[in-house]
Amino acid sequence: MSLRTQLNEVLPEILPANPKEAIKGTELIRLVRMRLNGNYSDASLRYHFSIMSCDPGSSIAKVDKGQGYYRRTAPVPALSGAQELLSLTQGRLDDLSGDQSTVDQALMRVKKFRAIVHRWCEVNGRFPFVFREPFQQDAPMGNLWKFPELVMVDWEGAGEDDDESAILQLKKNLSLPPFRLHAARLRIFPSHHSFREDFFQALSASVWANGGELIYAAPIEDEALTEAYRKLNAAFGVGVTSFGLNPYAIDDLPRPAHILNAHPRETEALMERLEISRIAAAHSKPHIDWNALEAIRNDSSEVDALFSWLNESLVTGKRKPYETV
Question: From which domain of life does this come (predicted)?
Answer without folding.
Answer: Bacteria
